[in-house]
Design brief:
This protein is α/β, with parallel strands linked by helices. Helix content is about 25%, strand content about 25%. The protein has ten helices and 19 strands. The strands form four sheets. Strands 3, 5, 6, 10, 11, 18 and 19 form a seven-stranded mixed sheet that branches. A six-stranded parallel sheet has the order 14-13-12-15-16-17, with helices on both faces. The protein starts with a strand and ends with a strand. The structure holds zinc ion (ZN). Zinc ion binds next to helix 2. Zinc ion binds near residues 97 and 109.
């Protein structure tokens, strides 16, 4: 079979190449790939900045945002041939830490978890892949290709759960929410927040292209420019850019008793004074900064429900399709209008 592979930590090593059939030890369910989404983590792996091959191997099959069709459900599975499934990304650490021991591997405390397509387990960018039945999430067949949005939806399902849990520390009645960054995570956050009847605002640097209209069509308000110039103080900010200045401005701008949920991972130092000023703003307003990464099985299940009940036409506008895996390099060169680039492996 063919797969998109990379030698981790070696820039420019990505190839679409002949690769052995998936090892039966990777799971009893055999799946034919339909599509795989590409995100910033994949781009970082291809750039040689991140990623780990399986122990004893030099190359890693890329891809963690999967969608596939079951070819062989194996002996002990509730799955059927032809079911559309998405594979969970993370596996618990082998020790396991207390969080992994109770199935909350998204909160792993020792960092020894593994992740498909990222850390020590082959990913989903291969014509066929195998998975353990308990890590295969069935998706609503009417979603079709949109099922590939499940993994990013799990990230936001967990993040919003963290926000709601944090809000319970005091009397809390949020009305206005700001989402910074109108990438796939930000737009899916806006979709879910609108479903809660909140006054949703999305800020992004794009002044043209499809993003303003996509946000407007949700019934949310689109902004460009600085968070400091919004003209109001949001009760909640869901930060999806990872950009230092956006995070610093968000900490200044959020209302008293506010919550900022950080989901983006960026780079860039901050001076001691900037950090001290930010900390003062957090303390004096009783604010909470909560970080959120990955998702556990509860979030995967909820995200599947949420996606199945979302407007298909709106979701379709988030996806840019690359029709052949051999053109995978195009997925790494983003056009300004691209929101979620998806590499299609087989028809649906
Ligand atoms: Zn753990």
């Amino acid at each position: 079979m063919k797969a998109i592979t990379v030698e981790p930590k070696k820039a420019g090593s990505a190839r679409y190449e002949e690769f052995p059939e998936p090892d039966v030890r990777e799971g009893s369910v055999l799946v034919e790939a339909v599509a795989v989404g590409v995100c910033g983590t994949d781009v970082e792996i291809v750039e040689g900045k991140y990623g780990w091959a399986p122990p004893g191997k030099t190359r890693l099959v890329l891809g963690h945002e999967s969608l596939g069709r079951v070819i062989d459900p194996g002996p002990s599975s509730s799955l059927k041939k032809g079911d559309l499934v998405v594979g969970i990304v993370r596996r618990p650490d082998p020790i396991p830490c207390p969080n992994c021991a109770v199935g909350e591997w998204d909160m792993c405390t020792n960092g020894q978890y593994t992740e498909r397509g990222i850390k020590e387990i082959h990913g989903y960018m291969s014509e066929r892949w195998r998975i353990e039945p308990e890590y295969a999430i069935k998706v609503d067949p009417s979603l079709g290709l949109l099922g590939v949005l499940l993994e990013p939806m799990t990230v936001i399902t967990k993040a919003l759960e963290q926000v709601l849990l944090t809000g319970q520390r005091a009397y809390w009645e949020p009305k206005t929410v700001l989402v910074t960054g109108a990438g796939p995570i930000g737009l899916l956050a806006a979709l879910r927040l609108k479903a809660r009847n909140l006054d949703v605002h999305v800020l992004d640097r794009a002044e043209t292209g499809p993003k303003p209209q996509i946000v407007h069509d949700l019934g949310a308000t689109y902004h460009t420019g600085s968070v400091l110039d919004l003209g109001f103080n949001p009760d909640v900010i869901v930060e999806c850019t990872g950009v230092g200045s956006v995070i610093a401005d968000s900490i200044q701008q959020v209302d008293s008793g506010g919550i900022i949920c950080l989901t983006g991972v960026g780079a860039g130092g901050a001076s001691g004074r900037v950090v001290a000023d930010m900390a003062a703003a957090v303390v004096l307003k009783n604010n909470v900064l909560v970080g959120s990464v990955n998702a556990n099985k509860r979030h995967w299940y909820k995200a599947g429900q949420n996606l199945a009940h979302s407007d298909r036409e709106w979701l379709r506008r988030l996806i840019t399709r690359i029709e052949k895996p051999e053109d995978f390099q195009q997925a790494l060169v983003r056009e300004p209008d691209d929101i979620k680039v998806v590499i299609q492996f087989s028809d649906i």
